[in-house]
Amino acid sequence: MSQVIETVDVDVPVRTAYNQWTQFESFPHFLSFVESIRQTDDTHTHWDVKIAGVEREFDAEITEPRPDERVAWNSVSGDVNHAGVVTFHKLSDDSSRVTVQIDWEPAGVVEKAGAILGIDNASIKSDLKNFKKFIEEQGAETSAWRGEVSN
């Protein structure tokens, strides 16, 4: 199992950062490996990604959305088994920290080599910088979903 943990500070309130992160269909604007995401219901998404030239599809279930605090998910289908959480921390009224943790099982030689070399960490770090640029330039979220899931 491989794990990635990366953090970025953004100059927007935690509410704005959280709200934008719940707009999964906007992820291709800042996550380089995401081709498209379709939210199929309140707790399920379908992802089309391209990692190191390899195209993959998977479905994920949002298991723990807590407004302004965290969004957790697990993959429920596809070639790559993974889970993760994004947490949101208030630094000030106008800034917040976003931390991403992803646990995944690399499949194939290329993904295993990439994990060993830290390419997955570098990719997530770069994509968090893209998120920072995206949300700070927007200045506000494109939309929001503030629901909760009861298990």
Q: How far apart are the first and last residues' alpha carbons, in Å?
A: 26 Å
The string of secondary-structure elements, in order, is EHEEEEEEHH
Return the average pLDDT rounded to an integer: 86
Domains, number = 1
Beta-strand portion reads: over 45%
- CATH C-level class is Alpha Beta
Task: Estimate percent helicity.
Answer: 25-40%
Determine the structural class based on helices, strands and strand pairing: alpha+beta
Strand order of the largest sheet: 1-7-6-5-4-3-2
Instruction: Tell me the total number of β-strands.
Output: 7
Level-2 CATH architecture: 2-Layer Sandwich
Kindly identify the CATH topology: Alpha-D-Glucose-1,6-Bisphosphate, Chain A, domain 4
Please, could you describe this protein's structure?
- With 151 residues, this protein is of the alpha+beta class.
- It has helices spanning 14-21, 108-117, 119-138, and strands at residues 2-10, 34-41, 44-51, 54-66, 70-78, 82-92, 95-104.
- The protein is 25% helix and 45% strand.
- Strand 4 and strand 5 form a beta hairpin.
- The longest helix is centred in the C-terminal third of the chain and has 20 residues, at 119-138.
Question: What key attributes describe this structure?
Answer:
151 residues; alpha+beta; Alpha-D-Glucose-1,6-Bisphosphate, Chain A, domain 4; seven-stranded antiparallel β-sheet; 3 helices; globular
In short:
This protein is α+β, with helices and mostly antiparallel strands and 151 residues long.
Helix-strand blueprint:
Layout: E1 2-10, H1 14-21, E2 34-41, E3 44-51, E4 54-66, E5 70-78, E6 82-92, E7 95-104, H2 108-117, H3 119-138
